[in-house]
Amino acid sequence: MKIVSILGVGALLFSVGFGAQSVLADDAPVVFTEAFLKDKAIFKQGKEIWFEQCTHCHGYKAYPGKAPKLKPKRYTPEFVYKRVSKGFKKMPAWEEVYDKDELMAVVAYVKHRKFSP
Ligand code: HEC
User: Fold this and answer.
1) 58 lines ligand 1 (CB under 6 A)
2) N or C terminus: which one in the chain shows less Cβ crowding within 10 Å?
3) Taking residues 77-99, what's their average pLDDT?
4) Could you tell me if 22 and 36 lie in one domain?
5) Which domain holds residue 12?
6) How far is the CA of 87 from the centre of ligand 1 (A)?
7) Which residue(s) pair with 91 in the sheet?
8) Does the beta carbon of 54 lie inside 6 Å of ligand 1?
C-alpha cells in the first residue's frame, strides 16, 4: 500500500515537473543568431509574411499615418519579436496567428539589410 502511494506521488511530481518544463519552453527567450538573421530561406519566409500582413500598415503603399515607418536599425531583434508577438496599442498581436518560427522569420526580414517595407 505504501509503495503504491509513493509511486502515485512520484507520478504526480513527474507530471507537475513535466508540465512546468513545457510552460518554460513556451516562455523561453527567443535567441537570434547572426546565422539565423542572415539565412536566405528564413528571409524569404519572413518576406512572405511581411507582404501578407504587415505591408498594408507599415509598407510603401500604406495610408499615411496608419502605422509608423519602421526604423529597423534602432531595434533589437528581441524588441521586434515582442512587438510582433504581443502587439502594442494599435499594433495587432500575431502570436495566435503565427508560430514561433514564423514570428522569428518576419523579425529576420525586418532586421535584414535588404528589408524593404
Ligand atoms: C493594423 C495595422 C498594423 C499591422 C497589420 C501591423 N502593424 Fe506593426 N504597428 C502598427 C501600429 C499602429 C504601431 C505603433 C504602435 C505604437 O507604438 O503606438 C506598430 C508598431 C510596430 C512596431 C514597433 C515600431 C516602433 O518604432 O516602436 C514593429 C516592429 C511592428 N509594428 C512590426 C509589424 C510587423 C512585423 C507586422 C506584420 C506581422 C505588423 N507590424 C503589422 C500597426 C500595424
Assistant:
1) yes
2) N
3) 97
4) no
5) 1-30
6) 7
7) 88
8) yes
Q: Are 47 and 63 in a shared domain?
A: yes
Q: What is the pLDDT of residue 51?
A: 97
| Residue showing cell 533589437 | 76
Alpha carbon distance 53, 30 (integer Å): 21
CB 104 less than 6 A from any atom of ligand 1 = no
Provide the pLDDT for residue 29.
80
Mutate to test the pocket of ligand 1, among 53, 63, 83 (most ligand atoms within 8 A of CB): 83
Q: What would the pLDDT profile of 53-65 be if each residue is shown by its tens digit?
A: 999 999 998 998 8
- Within this chain, do residues 88 and 51 fall inside the same structural domain, yes or no? yes
CA distance 88 to 92: 7
- Rounded average pLDDT over 9-18: 47
The pLDDT assigned to 68 comes to 94
> How many domains in the chain?
2
Instruction: Decide: 95 and 86 in contact? Cβ < 8 Å.
Output: yes
